[in-house]
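Researcher: Next sequence.
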Amino acid sequence: MFRRCWSWSPSPITSACSSSSRATSRCCPDGLKPHPREVVGTFDRAGHLELTYATSSPRRGAYRFGPIDLQVSRRDGWWRRQVRLDRPHEVAVFPNVVAIKRIQLTLRRGLRAMAGLRRARPPGASTAFAGLRDYVRGDDIRRVSWTATARRDHPVMVEVEAERGQQVMIAIDCGRLMTAPAGELDKLDHAVNAALMLAWVAQAYGDRVGLMTFDDRVTNFIKPERGSTQLRQITEALYAIQAEYVEPDFGHALTHLSLRLGRRSMIVVLTDLQDPEASKELVAHCLRLAARHLVLVVAMSDPAALNARYAPVTTSSRAYEWAAAEEFMASRRESFELLRRGGVLGLDVVAGNLSPALVERYLELKERALL
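Model: Next structure:
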């Protein structure tokens, strides 16, 4: 019996067969990290045996179970037989959702008030009543609630927030830049985990969520919608995607996105930035999108490059490593600066911290009513 599994989560696998002897079985793909590798058991009087072992895969994707190697022997040990049972089967390993479950309670309490920030209304944005608070120097006097002020005998302000029901579109680059390793996972796996968490959080706040994946062409497009069915569709679309060793076509992908989105949306582009020359196509099309949409470009820093930049320089070879890392990071900063000047938001974060950093940025934008 085989079923769905979740990455980084222990999942039991059970194999069943019938005979009248003692058996050792093994059939699990190495990528699922079975423990133990070989399972020993004894048939019951009815000639039935079930063997269970644990698996834990750090990577999502589709895994194929091959033939079952079964070694059957008698109790007295004088008879032994090797049998191979052809029972191919596939198991789907989905991205881990443990981190999502950890923040459910926090999200149910609503948007947190961030120190030093007030809810603001961009021109033309519709708003909804969010609550009352005490007057702070610099507040707009037009927002004073005179009835509440009379009851409390001190100035009270009306707070408003952007209405729920905005659109969030997640675009994931599956080109060669995302094949690079970043810790235990590659950059695409980090992007998938972050996209899944962002989709869940945006859904919890009433926003429509959509997904687009692309490399040198658009490989998948899910239009923004609400509901648990939409989250399930996004999860199933994300579990099997793979990075390809091709140059991503940002022009085609972002033009396709612009044509498919009929209203202002928050567009989150999960990719990687290099020097301005290599990133000029991405920068140019993001600037064009920013005229109508709120665009956030998210790039993942390589932990190895950061270590080379900040580790002590003790030898001449380390000096060369430091210079190369510093040049690389400076070129990334220049690319982000070009985006910022054109009104495009940027987020450069270590790959291992991508999911919480992206969710925090989304919540900050919701708090500031920029969507």
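Model: The radius of gyration is 27 Å. The first helix runs from residue 98 to 102.
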